[in-house]
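**C-alpha cells**
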Amino acid sequence: MLRGRSLSVTSLSGLPRWEVEELPVEDLLLFEVAWEVTNKVGGIYTVIQTKAKTTADEWGDNYFLIGPYFEHNMKTQVERCEPINDAIRRAVDTMNKHGCQVYFGRWLIEGSPYVVLFDIGSSAWNLDRWKGDLWEACSVGIPYHDREANDMLIFGSLTAWFLKEVTDHADGKHVISQFHEWQAGTGLILSRARKLPIATIFTTHATLLGRYLCAANIDFYNHLDKFDIDKEAGERQIYHRYCMERASVHCAHVFTTVSEITAIEAEHMLKRKPDVVTPNGLSVKKFSAVHEFQNLHATYKARIQDFVRGHFYGHLDFDLEKTLFLFIAGRYEFSNKGADIFLEALSRLNFLLRMHKSDVTVVVFFIMPAKTNNFNVETLKGQAVRKQLWDIAHSVKEKFGKKLYDALLRGEIPDMNNILDRDDVTVMKRAIFSTQRQSLPPVTTHNMIDDSTDPILSTIRRIGLFNNRTDRVKVILHPEFLSSTSPLLPMDYEEFVRGCHLGVFPSYYEPWGYTPAECTVMGIPSVTTNLSGFGCFMQEHVADPTAYGIYIVDRRFQSPDDSCNQLTQFLYGFCKQSRRQRIIQRNRTERLSDLLDWRYLGRYYQHARYLTLSRAFPDKFHMEPTSPPTTEGFKYPRPSSVPPSPSGSQVSSPQSSDVEDEEDERYNEEEEAERDRLNIKSPLSLGRVPRGKKKLHGEYKN
C-alpha cells in the first residue's frame, strides 16, 4: 500500500514553515498535456513554461510534458534525446512503428523537462476512425470544416494511445495525467472511456463559452444563472467544442481552475464545481533584481524617453522628467481586455489634468497586435530626426570640448562667442528647422489594414485624443509585440515594462491575468479589476492593495460609468504622486512577488494530484480526504506609513509637502519589509476534514 508522507518545507524568503503531504513521486509518473507545450499561443504557455522548473525539481525524471510537434519549435526549443524510462521508450517505439511520428527530448527552458511531441499531420489519415471513437465515447460529433477541433481530436487520440502504451509497461508505477483546456480534453475523454488505469485532472484556464459571451458585451457575471447554455453555444457554432470541454470536465477525477472568479463561471457554464483552485504563478527568480530594480526602471525609462523624443519631434513642449508612461498589453480583445473603458478613462483624465493646469504629461502605449502593412513613415522619420539631432549635438560637443581643452592648456578662459564658428551655428539652425512638422504626432506606429474599423482608432477619433499640444494625455498604438530588434522601439517586453510607471489592465474577462502579475514581480504598480483572477487573489492576500501599487477597479458590482470614473480617479491620483511616493510604492509592489512564486503556488497543484490519486486508486492510496490549500491569515498588512483609507495614501496635490514629509518621516523601507515578512502566517495548509460520505465528482446537476 502506498501512503503520502508528511514533509516539512523550509521557509523561503523569510516565510514560515508549513506542513504538506508529500507524494511518493518515485512510484508515480506525472504527465501534463497541453496544446501549448513548446508552442506559444497564449497564457497557458506561460503557465507551463514558468512552472516547469518547480515541478521538474520535485518530480525529477518522472515528469513529462505532452504537446504537438511543429518543426520550427522543435529545431529552436527542443534537444532530442532517448527516453531513459523503459515505459516511455516502448510507447514511443510502438507508436512510431505504427506510422505515427513521435518525438522525444528536453525542452530548453528552465528545468529542462522531458517532452513528448506528436506530429498531427502524419496521423491525420486516422481522423474518421477517431471521430467514430469519440462518438462512441461521449456522443459528440465534430464538423468536417472545423479544422482546429479536428486537430485537437487527432492530438487527443494520440495522447490516449500513448498513455495506454505507457500504462501497459509501467511496472507498477501509477500514472497521473493533467489535461489543460478543451484542446487536450479529448485525450482525457478517450482515456476514461477505455478505462485506462490513470488518475486524471482537467484544468480550465477560461471557459470556452464564457470568453465568447464576454466578447459580445453581455452583462456576463450578473446573469450567469440565466443563460441557456446549449442555445448560446449553438448560436455561436461552437456547440461541439463546448460539449468536448464539458465532457472533459465531467470525466476527470479532479477538476481545477485558476481563480475563484473562474470557478464561479465554470460551475454555471460547465455544471461542475471545481475541486481545487490552482492560482497561476511565475518563476520569480527570472525577474528578481533584488534592490537593483529601481535602477533598472531608470535605465529603461531613459530608453522609452528616447523613443518619445523622436515620436513627438516638433511637438516636444512637455517636460520628460514630469512625464508618466502607462501601458496596456495583451491580445487584441477590445472589450474583454478593457481597452474600451481605459480609453474613456483617459479622455476624462485628460480633461482633469487640463482643468487643474497640471504640468504632468501622460504617454500611454497600447501594445496589442493587429493586422498592419508596415511601419508608419512619419514614425520612422521621427526616430531618424532624433538620431540626426543626437549626432549633430555630439559632433558640436566634440569640437566645443577640444577647443575648450586647448584653451585651458594654454591657461586661457575661452571666448564663448568664438568657441563655435559660423558653420556650427548653421548646422544647428538647420537641425532646428528639420524638427518642424505640419502634422500632429501619429497615434499609431504602423499602417493599420483596417484603419477605419479598428476599435481603438475609432474610439480615439470619437474622444478626440489626437496628441494635440494642449492634450496632457498622449496616445500611441503599437500594434505589434515588442522586440529588441525593432527599428522603432528596440526593447524586449520585460525591459519595456520595467521602464514604465504603471500597467493598466481593466479587463472585463480575465480568468487570471499574467500581465499585472508580471508588473508586480518587476516592481511596477498596475491596475486590475475584481473580475480578474489576479485582482481577486490580491484582494484576498493584501489588506490595502492600493498602498502596494495594486489598483483594483470594481467592474462587477457597479455600472460601467461608475467603473470608468473609479479608474479615472485611480489614474488621476497616480499622476498627483510625487517621485518619492512612486519610489516607495514600487518598493512595496516588488515585495508582493513572494505571493506569486511557483514555489508556493505549486502546492495547489500538489493538492490536486494528491486528491486525484485518492479518487482514482482508493484501494491503493489510503489517504484521508483533505480540504484544498487555504490561505487563512496569509495577508500583507497595511503599511504603517499609510493612512487607513486606501485613498489616503495619495497626496491631494503635488504641492502638499507637509503630508508628503509626514509620510516620508514614518517610512522606513527595511523596517516595513521586515514587518511584512513577520506578519505573514502559514500561507498554505493541507487541512484535514472529518471522515464522512463525500459527494462523488459526477453528482452534479446537468
Notes: The two ends are 36 Å apart (CA to CA).
